[in-house]
Write a structure and sequence with these properties.
globular, TSUP, transmembrane, transport, Probable membrane transporter protein, single chain, TM_pro_TauE-like, 253 residues, mainly alpha
């Protein structure tokens, strides 16, 4: 087990709780969990540990929302996400931590600005790709957001905010948002495991650490399910945007 002070364990427990909450209620809050973990553990260790905690949260998100996913959206995103994962792997190998953090921060803020602009100017409120405009513009949006999501999730486990902006742009209701997001990240996170194992990041110490923190993820996920049943759509959208902005600013600073 990795040796840590009691205060560090408290922060890790908080991060795990937020990770579970983010998976079942407030997707944008997952960035905060990533930030906390990275402030306590070495960067490479935090990447591996966070991924495994997210996978625990994915299980509960799928149990709660698996029937609400929009599979057309997932299939539309798949090719771009794969491309983003590959680009992210190359970028991660060539760049410093500082460059990675600032690049992701700039990308997220740009996505927020684009999403708010689209929501202000979009006509109608159909919950599908056409909410983004024409079918051609919807395909372009899927390619852009998908590539960025694959890129950011590979380099910093921060694909959640990018996909949050995409799902908000499509005007997805809360449960469709959470169901589609649950399947998306369950698939993507499992895909990332062989990459991290191949470069030696999934060590016995990391596995033991996550075993100790997993109960907090479960508690957070269960709390999140209760919150999601009661949260109004407008408040949900605002919280997702606010949490994404907070995470983006932190990455830039």
């Amino acid at each position: 087990m990795i040796a840590l002070e009691p205060g560090a364990w408290a922060l890790l427990g908080l991060a795990a709780l937020i990770a579970g909450l983010g998976k079942t209620a407030l997707p944008g809050s997952s960035t905060i969990a990533v930030v906390i973990l990275a402030s306590v553990l070495p960067a490479r260790t935090s990447t591996a540990a966070m991924l495994l905690l997210f996978i625990v949260g994915d299980v509960f998100a799928l149990i709660a929302y698996r029937r609400h996913a929009d599979w057309r959206t997932l299939l539309r995103l798949a090719p771009a996400v794969v491309a983003g994962l590959l680009v992210g792997a190359v970028f991660l190998a060539l760049s410093t931590d500082g460059i990675v953090r600032r690049t992701i921060g700039v990308i997220l803020l740009a996505m927020i600005a684009l999403t708010l602009w689209r929501r202000r100017h979009a006509a109608g409120s159909a919950v599908d790709a056409d909410a983004l405009g024409t079918r051609a513009s919807a395909r372009i949006a899927a390619a852009g957001y998908g590539t960025l999501a694959g890129f950011t999730t590979m380099v910093a486990n921060s694909g959640g905010p990018v996909m949050s902006m995409y799902f908000l742009a499509t005007r997805a209701p809360v449960k469709v948002f959470l169901g589609t997001s649950a399947w998306f990240f369950a698939i993507v996170n499992l895909t990332k495991v062989p990459f991290l194992a191949g470069i030696g990041l999934l060590t016995p110490e990391v596995l033991l650490l996550d075993l100790a923190l997993a109960p907090m993820v479960v508690i957070g996920a269960l709390i999140g399910i209760r919150i999601a049943r009661r949260i109004p759509q407008r408040l949900f959208d605002r919280l997702v945007i606010g949490l994404t902005i907070a995470g983006s600013v932190y990455l830039l600073l």
